[in-house]
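Inputs:
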Amino acid sequence: KAGVTQTPRYLIKTRGQQVTLSCSPISGHRSVSWYQQTPGQGLQFLFEYFSETQRNKGNFPGRFSGRQFSNSRSEMNVSTLELGDSALYLCASSRQDARQYFGPGTRLTVT
Amino acid sequence: AQKITQTQPGMFVQEKEAVTLDCTYDTSDPSYGLFWYKQPSSGEMIFLIYQGSYDQQNATEGRYSLNFQKARKSANLVISASQLGDSAMYFCAMREGNFGNEKLTFGTGTRLTIIP
């Protein structure tokens, strides 16, 4: 069974631009969660989607948004990028049997 | 208060020895789950083991076992017979509430280095 996939793996953007990251969950998994990992703040929860609905949201500004499609694939968008948005963005999928599986991450660098 | 506390920023262990990584948690919810993940330098978070708050027995997955002490609110990861490939960051995480809340709260991690 294929794991969680994330595209792109690496991304370099300029301040003020916007970016869209994609996550394809494990087949059969309907929940997708997004996390931001930085050296200073560690791993922080962004939001979680289930059946195309945002079910839970972390403490991030409105520049961070997401959506989920009917095939459970999810996208995350960050508008008006800031230097502090440079991070590893991880998504995780679950079938609600407790175990959550992560993708390889997208490493975003904002210059 | 920190919900997940990992007090060992770094550990050095001789190859083939067993290693215990500490994790304490704080929650008032009677239903919760505890996770351990391994993160190599590549960045991917690899699921290792899961323990539910109502599970009667300690979880085991191959060389990994979870020493779950509910009254002490600790969930230590034990790796038996360590290997060089075990060198990585290890994160303890908690999900509170029942299924439907998939948000994980992570600790700050422990960097494990296996010495040949």
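The radius of gyration of chain B is 14 Å. Flag for discussion at group meeting.
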